[in-house]
Structures are given as C-alpha cells and as structure tokens.
Design a protein that fits this description.
The complex is a heterodimer of chains A (240) and B (305). Chain A has 11 helices and no strands. By secondary structure, chain A is an all-alpha fold. Chain B is built from 10 helices and 13 strands. The two termini of chain B are 22 Å apart. The relative contact order of chain B is 0.14. Classes of the chains: A mainly alpha (240), B alpha/beta (305).
Chain lengths: 240, 305
Amino acid sequence: MTALTLAVAETRLILRNRTVLVTAAILPIAMAFLLSRSDVAVFAASPGSLAAVQLGMLLMFGVFMTSTMTLAARRQQRYLKRLRSSPASTVSIVAGLAGPLVLVVAVQGLLVLAYTAWETGTAPAHPELLVLAFATGAAASVALGFLTASFTKTPEAAQITVLPGTLVFMAGIVMGLMRFEGAESALAAAVPGAGPTELTRLAWDGGDYTAALEPLLLSVLAAAAAALLAARLFRWQPRA
Amino acid sequence: MNATTHEDRPAVEVRDLACRYGTFTAVDGVSFTIAPGELFALLGTNGAGKTTTVETAVGLRRPAAGTVRVRGLDPHRHRRDLAGRVAVIGQETGFADDLTVTETLRLWTDLHRLPARDDLVERVDLAHRAAVRVAALSGGERRRLDLALALATDPAVLFADEPTTGLDPASRRRTWALLRELTRRGTAVLLTTHYLDEAAELADHVAIMDRGRVVRFGTVAEITAAHEARITVSPKPFDPLALPVLAGRTAVADGRLTIRTTELQADLHRLLDWAARGGVDLGDLRAGPATLDEIFAELEAQPAV
C-alpha cells in the first residue's frame, strides 16, 4: 500500500519531467523499434537474439539510466531524506521509486516484442523464461541504478556516471549473444546483463530447459550482488 | 541538567551526546530532556552543533558517544516505530519539486495512513497556492508547507530545526501560534533557532550551545538573571561626578549613562531618588534584565578554549 502510494507520486513526477520522460519512455522504445528494422545477420538467424537486445536496451535506458537520474534528483531535493523520516519501509521506498520505471519498461517490452514477433513471424518458445529474464534483468537494472546513484551527486552528473554501467550492460548483452563452451561460458554469463540476454534468447528460440539453469542462476546472483553492494553504498541524503 | 517539568517519562532524553565528523567534534557531551508538552529551544551560532544534535535525535545519525532516546526508543534503531509519532521540520524542506502543495500533503498523510487533511493548507495560509507545484513556492511558503506536514501527523514529538528562517514577521507569528497549539496538545518540541526573541517568546527551557557544548541552560528568566541587568538613562543636566553611589558599573557614551548591575531594583531606586532630589530629567529611561542577545554576544566574544 505504501509502495503503491509512492509509485503513484513517482509516476506523476516522471510524467511532469520532460528529460526523464524522454529517457524513460521515448528513447528506449525508439531504440528498440529501430533495432527491429536493422539488417543484422545474427538477428535474421536468431529472432531470440533480436528480442534479447531489445529487452536489454529497454532495461538499460528505461530502468538503469533513468533510475540513476531520478534518484540523484530526489536525493538532491532531500525528498529521499523526507521519505526516510516517514513510516515507509526501505523496501516500500525502493519499490515505490523503481516500480513505475519497471512497469513502463514492461509495457514497452510487450509492445516491442509483439512487433518483433509479427515482423519475424516467430513467437517465444518458452514465455515463462521470458518473464524470468525480464524479472532478473529488471532487478539487476534497479540495483545498478541505486549503485550508480551512490556516486552521482546531481541528475546532470548522471550523464557521466552511468557510462561505466552502460559499458558493463552492453558487454553483458554481447556476451549473452555469443556462444562459449565450458568455463568460458560461465565466465561470459557472469557479466551483468549476459544472463537475462541468454535467457531471453533461449526463451524465444527454444531449447532444452536445462540450458536455462546456468544463465538463470547467474542472473539471480548478478542481481543479488548489485543489490547488496547498493544497499551498502547508497546514501539517502546528500553528503554534508 | 534536567528540563523535565511535569511528566515521568521524558519525550526526548539526550545523555552525554557526542557527534564527530572525522576528527572534528561537532557535539561534545550534550545532555537534556524534554517533557511532553514542553518546548525546548537550542540556541547557538552557525556551527554550534544544533543541527547535528537534532539530526541525531531524529535518528539520521548515530552518536559517536552517549545515548538518545525518543519516547524511550533509540531513534536510529527504531526509525520506523517512531516515524508515525515524530515529525521533523528541517532546514532543507525535502519536497519533490514537481508535486503540488495538495499532492505533497496527501502523499504525506497517505504514507502515515491518515485521512486527507486539506484543511491544513488554510491553517498555514497556503490555500491560494494549493494547486501550485512546490518548485514555484517561495522559501517562506515551503517552510509553511513543511509545518503543515508536521501538523498532519499530530506528532508526540516535533523536531523543528530553524522553522521560521526566511519567514516574514506575520508568518513567523502564525508559526509561533501553531507551535504553541502543538505544545498545548501535549507535543514535545525541540526548536533550534537563531532568533532569540523566538526562544524568549516560546521556550519553557533554553540551552545555548557554543562550539558543540551547552554553555547555558535554564528558563529564559534563569539565564538572564545570571547576568547583569542594565539601566540606561540620558540625564539633563548631567554631571557624572554628582551621581549617587551605585552597586553597578557605570559607563557614559554620547551623554547616555549605562549602568550594569546585579542589584537592578536597588540601583534604580537610588537613581530615581537622586534625580528627584536634584531635579534631573532622566530622559529615555530603560531598565531591565539582560537580554538573550546580550548573553549571546558575550558568549561569542569569548575565545575558543
């Protein structure tokens, strides 16, 4: 209930800020649709790879980058400090702040993937794996957003501070698309973003369920590690 | 030092509090208690340690040493337990700029699971700004919205860190009235302020902080009584050599005589008697105890230990 109250307020704030609205709603979906129209060989051979890159882009722009920017802004306004002095639990505050961004990306994801399915004439072979890929990817993106906001003084500074996270994210997407064997495979899948990418590809193109176990486990571990680090480092009020 | 006046359990209890930023000690051995319904004022210059004391009492900081209890609980460990009964008015107001006044108030009451309190915008004189976004409010209006949020939760304890800074005189008086109303209803208030008249007007007890320590404590009357009272007159005709014997110290500047004394009534009587006998017009006669301003200035003039 408290999280919902905060989520409603956060949605209002997102809708009223043009910069945030563009980063959260317009940029990701434009990128995702552009990818659908691209002429990349790997996408032609594997529609699941296209879906994975689209979902990764949506999460990167819509959740990771936007949450870093909004968290820095809310902290600068001392709004986070105010929320911490309310009866709202930490979990409710996090859910209330990140929930609307995840929801926007979920809706965008449905639209983009529906278009991809229509464009490629394919459909996800294991939709439940797609849900898991989105859930773990969204959790990791929120955690990475909080973590990056720990080092981000102002919303303007977010344009610079998101760069390392963006590189990791993109590397993860690329690793998730590449095929490795044995230990190399586990190493590649451990890069944040790689697990959800591989899961999405498997969910769409099909394959043995057992092949999903490793990327699923690594996706959960990557999200948990980012969340733990963020919990340690995130500051609710600006430094004195 | 104990400010408890009429209640068994203090609403706020601070014992030997110390707070440090690295090697800098911002608060050093501060102790006080605040009873329900009491307004306790912390005075001091910038950097005296007032805000650090308040932030620790609110639970935003851990003390380096000493203990803080709010309604018997450690405010840092029991933040959520206390959140519903403790309100804070900070120096920075902490609003989301793109929410309106009404939306901000509703968000706050919703978070506390309280019914909407739209009447509060009237009480803090913001009814005409109810639909305006917080970003467009003036500093004074933001402070009044802050006060409305504090009133909305009907708090048992209110921490008010310089709540009237930036307010015009009318708004200040309105804020004072609202603070008085809260204490009448049993709220314990910890007020920090630069305005000495504010402390004199509102506070049951006052502590003056200087460089992290409490250097004066008591009621305003007790604190001022410990300092020399002052009599000022502009005698005409004036012959300094003809003055009566007084207990206090005299000083003359620009034809104005100032007497600093610990025997206000006796010296005043001697002076009036002398004027009546000699046919001296005392001009603009003023007599009274030391003001908090004077005590404050005196403390500021003292070198750091």
